[in-house]
User: What shape does this take?
Amino acid sequence: MAYELIICEKPSAANKIANALADKIPSKKYSKEKVAYYELTHKGKLIVIVSAVGHIYGLAQKEKGGRSKYPVFDIEWIPSSEVNKNSAFTKKYLNTIKRLAKGAKTFTVATDYDVEGEVIGLNIVKYACKQKDASRMKFSTLTKPDLIKSYETRQKTLDWGQAKAGETRHFMDWYFGINLSRALTASIKATGSFKLMSTGRVQGPALKLVVDKEKTINAFIPEKYWEIEFDGKVKNGNIIAKHKAGKIFEKEKADKIYNICKDEKEAKVIEVKKKKFKSLPPVPFDLTSLQIEAHKCLKISPKNTLSAAQELYSSGYISYPRTSSQQLPKEIGYKKIITSLLKQNNHKKSAEFLLNKKVLVPNNGKKADPAHPAIYPTGNVPNFKTTYDTKLYDLIVKRFFAVFGDEATRETMTVTLDCKKEKFITKGTTTVENGWFDLYGKYVMLKEEELPVINEGDICKIKKLNKLDKETTPPKRFTDASIIKHLEKENLGTKATRASIVETLKNRGFIDGKPLRATKLGIRIEETLEKYSPKIVDPELTRYFELQMKEIRTKHTGQKKVLEESKKTVTEITNIFDKHLKKVGTELKEANRETQQIRDHIGKCPKCKEGNLQIRKGKYGNFIACDGYPKCKTTFSLPAGKIESTDKLCESCNLPMIKIINARPRTICFNKECKSKNINDKELKKEIIEIKNGTVEKECPKCKKGALVLRKSIYGQFLGCNGYPKCKYTEKIIDGPLKEDFKKEKKK
Assistant: This one.
């Protein structure tokens, strides 16, 4: 019997859509590759729902081999499993879709409604299903009402504007990214060395932003200035008052003011001004503002924010996160969502408050997105998987509430004091009407600077007069959040790709640190690119192509013209590189060597006192060794994961601390014999000694054959099965008493 095939982007979405559309309970089935799909009826109509796993087609050059050749423009879409071995898992999903497509009469695409989702859907329809077009579901949440409405009002065709714009972006990114990266790699190869290098259409300009900032900071010449202030006491409390002149750049002027006032014991209050001002509620979150706020309030990186937001969306707890909109339309049902949030105890009070308002009007922002509204909670009761999910959801709900709040009122009190005709100022700002602050809670993050009660004519006793020597400071470096904001301002990249662009620059060793710094390699790469081909790092070129893609999306034309222009630009750039291949390679090779030395340096060797500890690569992974080898053979083992040096020393053994970047980044001492690794709990320590001496035995709960013995690692002491390596069971002991973990058995 023929059926309609609905194609989803992810398995979680397929599950949600199947359960939403089914007349009864959908039948979950498995293909011979063990990929789940669903059979159901919707109003009696037979439907099969199947899922991809994101992109299951990727771009590759048609000519086999010749991966170092450039420029190459003859490319095609092929299965992702054939493009990259890491995508081998996608093959079973593709095969399942192909098989189910053979029995389908009609096709509907239900991937995420954005440019990437459209490309995913188009490629599946075109190459796996052998169709020219398909119906299109458009939804912003994975809730049952929205999904039913989306299906019943589905478009008759794909969104061809999005599809063509997405295709163009993929082709252009391949043209620039692959060809220019091959040219950079070839330049190093020309010097007799080898290192994979990369750049791209957006990566180059993004790197330039960080490098330019670094150069501005390095070139900054501090300028001395002085501030005059006094610690004072009025009738109802203490104050700090600064001279009205603020920063004083002439020492003579600062000295003069100080000398006039230094022996004076009192200042008179000559003016007290109070000024109230309104603070409007915040606008709804788009992706960029969510990433910035999560970084500021929760210390979550933009990359992790996007990941957590995607998980919340897939679980049906929030609307689609990859949006540029700061507007909440009436159609989402404000009252319905707030009523649903009443069921969540920690949001009940705010929900009740808003439901008592006569009208609910959000403070919508200016930015709009034709595909999706701003981010909002659906009202579904959540069941969180990670701490990030929990924290981010709370922020999103409270922001949603705050958007409907009343204006807050703040008041600034400015007090002017006279000391021998020199004017001093003290200020304090406080909240007088909370308004939306109550709804946003801890995320408001405004300081309350309350001054004591002061009236004109009051006398302030001067406890101490200070002349502060200061220097001007350079511009602040970008943070993970502020670089995202700046990329958006410069129209570089998309809302969904900016965080990954920054991560790529980090992974390549071009930028690092918190805040972000350009490494020597990053600076040299940018300088080399700008020297030989400034177009690669020119934001104007990237902005131009972004505008062209917007035109393609809205007018559905111009794809061929844009691709021809990009081919021409890439060819011009690679031709210039070919003329200076060895020069470019020499500069990049030297920069890479210097950067690697800096990154691998840990500190002085504690044994020979002469050599330096360096991170080395060995057969079994990374380790730390003295560069005085073979005279000094000091070594320390390292765990898996990326290792970074720090400026910190261990308080227990005085060796350098290292930062381990893995699933749970942490800064630790790498010396496993360090006293900080020992167990301090007396009862626990006694039991560990008994285990070590063999008077207490714990059976391995995994293999049931071995016994647990005491071992040491970089993280501290732990218990491990003595059947290692056949049994790799381990058990933490540093976090709590062993008696809670296992039942002791005394040896007879």
User: Anything to note?
Assistant: The longest strand covers residues 266-279. The first helix runs from residue 11 to 21. The radius of gyration is 32 Å.
